[in-house]
Amino acid sequence: MAQMTVTLKAEMKRGSFYWVATVDAESKDEAIVAAENLFQAEMEKAGDWSFADFEVTLDQPA
User: Fold this and answer.
1) Do the beta carbons of residue 2 and residue 25 sit within 8 Å?
2) CA nearest to 34, candidates 59, 1, 62
3) DSSP, res 13
4) In sequence order, what are the residues at sequence separation of 6 or more whose Cβ sits closer than 8 angstroms to the Cβ of residue 55?
5) Angle at the Cα of 7 (from 14 to 15), degrees rounded to 5?
6) Is the pTM of this model over 0.70?
7) How far is CA 39 from each of CA 12, 17, 56, 58, rounded to the nearest angstrom?
8) How does pLDDT run along the chain (62 residues), one tens digit per residue?
9) What residues are paired with 3 via a beta bridge?
10) How distant is the alpha carbon of residue 43 from its chain centre?
11) Whose CA is closest to 32, among 2, 4, 62, 60?
């Protein structure tokens, strides 16, 4: 088993959401499933977490 870092991206109605998780897996497919499962487990207790890092950029008018 190898340790892998997986970045998942979801396009949502009002923006994009990225989930980054480190998992132990035998393959890339298994790593994706493991990261999705960790995300689902975290969402069950979403009220317990908040964003700790951010980046803001100014959109330039055309």
Assistant:
1) yes
2) 1
3) T
4) none
5) 5
6) yes
7) 15, 11, 24, 30
8) 999 999 999 999 999 999 999 999 999 999 999 999 999 998 888 888 888 899 988 888 76
9) 24
10) 11
11) 4
